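Reviewer 2 asked us to include a model.

Predict the structure of this chain.
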Amino acid sequence: MKEKEIERLHLLKEEEIKLYENNINYICGIDEAGRGPLAGPVVVGAVILPKDSFIEGVNDSKKISEKKREKIYEQIIESAISYSVGIVDQKTIDEINILNATKLGVKIALEGLKQRPDVIMVDALNNMDTLGIPYISVVKGDAKNYSIAAASIIAKVTRDRIMKEWDEIYPIYGFAKHKGYGTAEHIRIIKENGPCILHRKSFIKNFSK
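Predicted model (structure tokens):
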């Protein structure tokens, strides 16, 4: 690993190192993927990594190519003490809104962990059920914090795989390409063909058939 990358990872872990020095053993990073798309679930990733974890390339998932994300994802889950995902479908998003659906995803992801964390580091969320576990909310945490960045990769890769599976069922919409986001092509297809069951009704009401 190059010296520059080692320095970058140490910077990402700066806050976590301080926590470890204060007898915190298990830090859980949490982040989501899919708050903005017109279709599909919101997915929350939760991961507890070893104290000495330094995986090359860990970063905000949006800054990493799909091929590289897949590779880093495998390294994360292989080395994790525990990891989990919380998946909340489009119907629930329509019923309780995307913010509450994301918070529900956090709870589901935490419930799926085999190791209870001592503290949670989450990307810009507050006022949620963390099962009594204290949390630190970090604005733009996926770009500032190692564990949150790792969680963002878990969430993004998981969600992308889900959308690729849906693409095989509804190939007309191109989910494998845009992953449900509101690209011009995706909006055009919805206008021409109407939505499918994967679309969030509350997100497409202004331009659906």
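The first helix runs from residue 3 to 12. The mean pLDDT is 96. We have added this to the supplementary material.
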